[in-house]
Amino acid sequence: MSRALARLRDTTGDPLLVRAGRGLVPTPRAIELRDRVSQLVQDANAVLRPAEDARLGQLERTFTLRTSEGFVENFGPALIARAGEEAPGVRLRFVRKPDKDSAPLRDGSVDLETGVVGKNAAPELRVQALFRDRFVGVVQPGHDLAHGEVTPARYAASRHIRVERPGQARGAIDEALDALGLTRQIITLVDGFAAALALARASDLIASVPERHTGILRAGMHSFPLPFALPEITVSLLWHPRLDADPAHRWLRGLLRAVCGADRSLTAAPPWPPAE
Predict the structure, then answer these.
(1) How far apart are CA 115 and CA 169, in angstroms?
(2) Rounded-to-integer distance, Cα 230 and Cα 52, Å
């Protein structure tokens, strides 16, 4: 205590405590500092206190979500509605996901990302599965494949739209047909599922797209299971570990899991703050 008092005296240039009989009394400078230091200690405690004391009704924050194609159309309305009910001060900003580059998560320009995890994803990212999806064929209602059994041969012989992905010369569908000795007739190539469905809606072309991600986009069209084995895809949630323990971020992750739940129902989101 004596050494601490000596350091404080050197720092402040004031004796702070002086003898008065057998005791010590504070100097005017010490009394002045007492009130100011007390407030500083309270402020420091507030800053360092775990953020679990925050409340959703008081939360003012904008979250940026980079989502795979079709996510906003299918899950965005429910997500926005749930967020608005629980945290009116929260805004969700959706941006397109043109590639699997992890840089936006690393530099903080994106808070959350959805999609299939790529081989080149940053190793430190947190990943949590949201749901499984499968590819289906989609045609306009009057198409030949809208009637009767769709066999691998009928599917391959029809006119197709192929969705190109960067760095991917051939996809899983073409590889599955190769194993059956078949090759599909590709008429045109596009860079996204929405474009493929728009073309299929107005032509005799077939679009092969993820089922859950394109539910809204496929409205009014005829969909059918692909007539050959194809692995399901896992759509995941990705975020940077810097946000792992952030209560508001954890709440949003829980909300996404509820909205995108495998049972396709809007189950209750975890309490605030949720435990993981």
Answers:
(1) 20
(2) 44
